[in-house]
Amino acid sequence: MPVVVVVKKSKSLGPLLYRFCYSSARVPAISASKREREFLSLLQCYDTFITCLTGPPFHFRRVETTSSDIVGHAAVNKTRVSEYLGIPYASPPVGSLRFATPEPFSSKQSFNASAYSPDCPANISPTYTFPNLTTLGQRIASKFADQAGNHTQSEDCLTLNIWTKTQFRKSRKPVLLWVHGGRFTIPGSNNPIYNGQYLADNEDVVVVTFNYRVGIFGFPGSPATTQNVGLLDQRLAVQWVHNNIAGFGGDPNRITSFGQSAGGVSADYYSFAWTADPIVHGLISHSGTALSMTPNSPEMSALYFHNVSVTLGCGGESDSQALECVRTKDFRAVLKAALLVSYAPSKALPRPVFHPTVDNKTVFADYASLGAAGKFAKLVNAPYIAGNLDYEAGYYKISAYAAKKNLTASEWDLFNLAGFTCPTGTEAANRAKYNVPVFRYRYFGTWPNLQLYPTSGAYHGSELEMVIGTAEDVSGLPNTATENAVSRYMMKAWAMFAAAPAHRLSELGWPFYEPEGTHFSAGARMDG
């Protein structure tokens, strides 16, 4: 039932406004003075009259964007939140745009943003087995790695999703822009872990997620085309959000990009690639920085692409001819050919073949030297949060087992240090060295409804449901009281970081990071 918001008493207009709000379809047919009729007409003409209602008209409001006019709907569980799904931000990267720099999308037709778009093309790994992996753990791991196999794939996938509450107020809200992980090989934004309705509802921020090209389509490696087009997709998504988010109630001058694993690496890559015009005003790297992954050399990437072209019958020609030939092949055939290319050797896990390549524009060869020299975007208002989990290996043990990798406990400790703890500490220290406000955390949370197996601990990715508020949706089980408290704290911290200058986190007891001092610990041991 519609709810009336009483702002001011009025002998003449009060009853009329009351009756108007209760009629969600039209102005009530009652006698009224000229002044009253003019007032009602204004209510009809201005979007702000919708605040009288909690019904659908608020959520179906049309938003004009550079892509097209967008129509949203109420989120399923948090109905005060407007949800806009599958908004195109780039033209479909097909034909000559396959493996190429993305181009902005524009259409004169209205777009009903009612469903996620297909995932970007990718080879989905099979479901893994692991000793003592529970049914719950299998479900969570499958969702995290997009192994369910129930999503369609298409090259027409460069879309974003927006969640916002009370989007038509005068003051603009901070924006949290999520960059998904997945080792640059796993799609996409259609994942219950990343559903932004809870974070948008709890903290009144605008949450945005998006797809970008992964694997060979995002990082083809051919010398005849632009490198790292998946990272250029990310840049175009940031530009789209900056240009359009005000229509959804967001503040284009308060955008924080946050990502996990490859998404955290992407956030750090971004700070080195776009120093002159970063657009974003804050960056958060969860379990991944530019030092966490070794990019391919141009020569190695070129060899990988050549191998694919030969498999597809496109080899033996010049680089440009091979590229044009591969562009004509069905994307499924390209994926199948890419799957045949041998992985680069690695002690713990196979390194992805088609992932970022050094081009000295979007990806650089020596981030240790660049970071030490301060060659990153220095965002002084809400600059950088970097963190990792207590036992990242708790997730990776599953895929290592599938790859028949049997590491000792000390080797797994080294894996945690080399891939996460040390890269996080180094990048945080580099920022602090140049007086950039930076915060660091280490997450220890283990919860009954997020456990993969009895000793999985605070594993890679297990903090995401806490920050985004989706643990119950993902697990199908209720949170504990302590889990809810930690989740509320983390959501508030991320929202406060996006909302205001960095010093506000001190209100939550979170000090600036000092390399010789302490960092913030989040989470709790299992309760319940």
UniProtKB/TrEMBL annotation:
Keyword hit for Thylakoid: no
Transmembrane segments: none
Assigned keywords, A-Z: Hydrolase
Molecular-function GO terms, alphabetical: carboxylic ester hydrolase activity
Domain Carboxylesterase type B: 63-408, 412-514
KW Hydrolase (keyword) present: yes
Similarity comment: Belongs to the type-B carboxylesterase/lipase family.
Protein name, per record: Carboxylesterase type B domain-containing protein
Organism (species): Cryomyces minteri
